[in-house]
Write a structure and sequence with these properties.
Length: 274
């Protein structure tokens, strides 16, 4: 019983000695880290204001601000460790060995990270643009370090790992797209009048952009009709519905103005035998 009491007294005495020795240093270290947190936020806000004035891409701006915050906090953490008397060289060496093992175990994640940095700094596309890549297409919703999210017309979202994007052939439509509408008219139609009607339809549609100018031209002399190609430009948001509106307006206009849209025709001749 006396031995147990003596052991408890020794543990209590040791705890008190350690508390008196390291307690103030530990408290100061916690205060240093807390100060680093607020300093990182303050410096981050300053950097964000400067980058906003430079009109940098939002994804790149967020990344740079986060890097600055982490760097400032890391400096304060080093100061806190030095205050506790921690030897930094062995710690750095140990972190290097651990980092090498972690990199081998996380090759896929790190490849996405490297690809994400490549996308952010080279900026082959930006948020809000419509792209087609890796067999998928949609409007870019967000670009992160590990993946890119596209939104689709059916209200779904497509998440593409960044390593599937870098090095692939990509079609970037930007923020506008060109429609491809075609209509056929009879061969005896006044083509100038039909083209003028189509121009008026496009001018009356609010979704059709004035610049770039719409392309309206005779494209094909088909078997049963003269085909007219209608290729106006619209915003990415208007693309799903604009074709239907233009087709409907062209059909109603042609009916009202007596412009005939012919059905496919074939002439069959029967040759009798002598």
């Amino acid at each position: 019983m006396n031995n147990q009491l003596a052991a408890l007294d020794q543990v209590q005495s040791t705890a008190i000695d350690l508390g008196l020795k390291f307690g103030p240093k530990l408290m100061v270290a916690c205060l240093i880290i807390l100060a680093g947190h607020f300093a990182g936020r303050w410096v981050g806000k300053m950097v964000e204001g400067v980058l906003t004035q430079l009109d940098l891409d939002v994804t790149l701006r967020i990344l740079l601000v986060r890097m600055v915050r982490v760097l400032v906090l890391g400096l304060f953490v080093v100061m806190a460790l030095q205050n506790l008397g921690v030897e930094l060289l062995p710690l750095v060496a140990g972190l290097g060995v651990a980092g090498a093992g972690f990199a081998l175990a996380m090759q896929g994640v790190l490849s996405n990270l490297a690809a994400g940095l490549t996308i952010i700094f080279t900026r082959p596309f930006r948020v809000g643009e419509y792209v087609s890549i890796a067999g998928e297409e949609g409007q870019v919703e967000s670009i992160s370090l590990f993946n890119t999210i596209l939104s689709h017309y059916d209200l779904s979202h497509i998440v593409i790992p960044n390593r599937k994007i870098v090095g692939e052939i990509m079609h970037n439509y930007g923020q506008i797209r060109q429609l491809g509408v075609s209509v056929g008219v009879a061969y005896d139609t006044d083509l100038n009048g039909a083209l003028a009607n189509i121009d008026a339809i496009l001018a009356a549609n609010p979704k059709v952009l004035r610049e770039p100018a719409p392309l309206v031209q005779v494209s094909t002399l088909a078997d049963s009709s003269v085909n007219i190609t209608i290729r106006p430009w619209v915003s990415v948001e208007a693309f799903p519905t604009a074709s239907s509106e233009i087709n409907k307006a062209v059909l109603e206009n042609f009916r009202a103005n007596g412009i005939h849209i012919p059905f496919p025709q074939r002439e069959v001749r029967l040759l009798g035998r002598d």
